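Service request form, structural biology core

Requester: graduate student, group of Dr. S.
Request type: structure prediction, single chain
Budget code: on file
Notes: please return the result as structure tokens.

Sequence provided:
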Amino acid sequence: MTPRNSLTGLAVFASVTLAMGLSATATAANASQPATADMAQVQHAAIAQATQVTNTLGDASGGYYLDHGKVVVNVLDAASAQKVEAAGMTAKTVTRSFAALTNTKNALDAVRNVPQTTWGIDTSTNQVVVTIYSAATPATAAKVTSAAQKLGAGVRIEQKTGRLDLHIADGDAIQNDQGRCSLGFNVTRDGSPFLLTAGHCTNLGGTWSGGDVSGAQVVQSDCPGADSGLLTRPNGSGPGAINTGQAITSAGTPTVGEQMEKQGSTTGGGSGQVTSVDQSVNFDVGVLDHEFGTTAHTDHGDSGGPAYDGSTGLGTLSGGDTVTSYFYPLTLELQSYGLSLA
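Core staff response, request fulfilled:
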């Protein structure tokens, strides 16, 4: 793949490992369906409607998810179910509110120094899903298991063989003497153009170049905690589009069950499904907060690459285990740095 200055995500991969979990219930068929323009339109309309209705439910809402593009709204009582069904959506009665799931997830966030583990909210199962990789030490596995079990049936523990790596190296869009990355999103701030990518890429520092960009400098770099990095774009503004030509005109909040696409300088294009939100990923170098998990295939060199649904940008890639990939939300990056999409 030749270097392109559109949305191909900065992917500089250091040999830093990170632990991220899965919480998906997606089928292989769902995971491989591309997020076509028509599908994206349907999904965006469904998510907007679900957001509007669940906002009226208050504590009786268990969140929502997409099942083959159709919205399922989790509710805690019959009155809420009637309201959801009157709006033409499917209601599913669950035992835990979304606020309760968030509280459970936040309680797990107090468990620190546990690399090669991860947890996040899966609204499709009304649970917080904890994943422990075989690369975790026995002491770490025991610590996380004990904490999760104390929180009851709202937590599901999954064991997974292998380990996760921060995807940072062998990219083809932007590089310096420390590594190679892919451009995430072209963005602007106060009328000036910038390049947005993963923070574990920009943590390498140095001057970046590639395509029509040369002399790009690190402006901001946040990782761990967040995973955002901002570079100057000395050669003028770049297109607000994926390197396939797909325009990116807005940023959206990922939804469990949402079909998405990604671009990366190592694995190129591909699709998957959002499987978890508000994921805490315990890297060997620290915790990344608020990530969302997907079934998209990525590898070293894809870091910083974009996740998107049609014309809606969703996030930039942090890493994964080639089967499960984690992205940092674009909405948080734009808000944190005061950015607009190009």
